[in-house]
Specification:
Blueprint (H helix, E strand, L loop, with lengths): L1 H20 L21 H16 L6 E2 L1 H17 L7 H11 L4 E10 L2 H9 L2 H8 L4 E8 L5 E9 L1
Parallel strand pairs: 1-3
Antiparallel strand pairs: 2-4, 3-4
Length: 164
């Protein structure tokens, strides 16, 4: 009798787990993400963002949309770079995972720069660097952005493009 009860309990647990993992159609349930929100940009960020989007549109590419969560990751990168006085991709694996866990991104790419004194120079620098250029014109849907000057007016920039 005990074996029959245990057997029914195990069957119940297995069926319960099945419904937790799969919906009624037998499809795996997708991870739920919080809704994406457009990022309110500073004037510098808006200039870089609009310049990049205008360039993309001139090539027949789709316009990118800002994303607040991804921009927060860019802010962390720029603050780190400003505190060191040099920009790098240090910490990108952590930013990547933070985005992957909070935004339904399929593709994530980061470009950074420092030392330029105008937003035009920032965008031209990205255009003139093959690896940065690929990220500018790549198949993405959203952009996170942060642009901040240091005490000498040199701009520190981080852009993370994602495809949702």
């Amino acid at each position: 009798m005990e074996y029959i009860v245990v057997g029914f309990l195990l069957i119940g647990v297995i069926i319960g787990l099945f419904f937790l993992i799969f919906n009624m159609d037998g499809k795996v349930l997708e991870k739920k993400y919080p809704p994406m929100k457009e990022y309110e940009m500073s004037i510098l960020e808006s200039k870089v963002f609009n310049s990049i989007n205008n360039y993309r549109l001139s090539l027949g590419l789709k316009k990118l949309i800002t994303d607040t969560y991804t921009s927060r990751q860019c802010i962390d990168q720029v603050i780190q770079s400003l505190s060191r006085g040099v920009t790098s991709h240090d910490g990108f694996p952590k930013r990547y995972m933070n985005i992957k866990n909070n935004v339904p991104a399929n593709t994530i790419s980061e470009i950074v720069s420092s030392g330029f004194t105008t937003t035009e120079a920032v965008v031209n620098g990205f255009k003139n660097s093959p690896k940065h250029y690929d990220t500018l014109i790549g198949d993405y849907s959203h952009m996170g952005i942060c642009v901040k000057p240091d005490s000498n007016g040199k701009l520190y920039t981080c852009i993370i493009n994602i495809k949702v």
